[in-house]
Amino acid sequence: MASFYKKRNNLIFFSIIFLALIILPNFLGYYQRYIIIEMLIWGLYALGFDIILGYTGLLNFGMSSFFGIGTYGITLSVLRLHANLWLAIAITILACIIFSLVYGFLVTRFCSHYFVVFTIVVSMILFFVAMNLRSITGGDEGLTFPVPPLTLGFVTLNLKNITVKYYFVLLICMLVLYLVWRFFESPYGKAIVAVRENEDRARALGYNTAQLKLVSFTLSGTVAGIAGGLYALHIGFTSAPIFFWLLSGKAVMWTVVGGAGTLIGSFLGAGILVYAEDLISSWNADIYPIIVGLILIIVIMLAPKGIMGALKRLKKASF
Amino acid sequence: MGKLILMQLLNGFVWGWLLALISIGLTLIYGQLEIINVAHGTMYTIGAVTTFYTFILFKSWSYALIISPLFMGILALFIYLSTIRFVVGGSPITTVIIAYGILFILEQLTLLIFGGVPRTIPNPIPQSITLFKGISYPLYRIFCAGFSIVVITLLLTFLKKTKLGLWIRATKQDHETAAAMGISVPFVFMFIFVLGSALAALGGVLAAPITGVTFDMGNNIVIDAFIVVIMAGFGSIPGTIVAALIIEMVIGLSAAFVNPVIAKVVGLAVMLIALYIRPQGIFGEE
Amino acid sequence: MKKKSNNKLTRRDFIKTTAGAIGGATITLGFPNIILAKKRPIRIGALQDLTGPLYSFGRWGKRSVAGAVKRINEMGGIAGRPVELKVEDSATNVQKGVMKLRKLILKDKCDFIIGPCNSGITIASAPIAKETNTIFFAYGTALSITAHKGNRYIFRGINNVRHIFKALAMTVLKEMGKRYYCMGADYEWGHSVVDEAKRVFDKEGGKLIGEEYSPIGTEDFIPYLNKINPDEVDVIIAGYFTKDILKLATQAYELGLTKKVQIIGGAMPTGLTVKDLGPAGDKIWFSGYGIRRIANMPEELKKYNLEFRKRIGMDEEGRDIKTKEMGAASYTWAPWEHVYWVKKGIEKSGWNSKKDNLKFMMALEGMHVKASYEFPQGDKTMRAEDHQVFASQTVSKIENGKFVVKAIIPGEKLYYPPLVDYRKEKV
Question: I want to staple A228 with a disulfide (CB 3.0 to 4.6 A). Which of A71, B164, C75, C324 is the partner?
Answer without folding.
Answer: A71
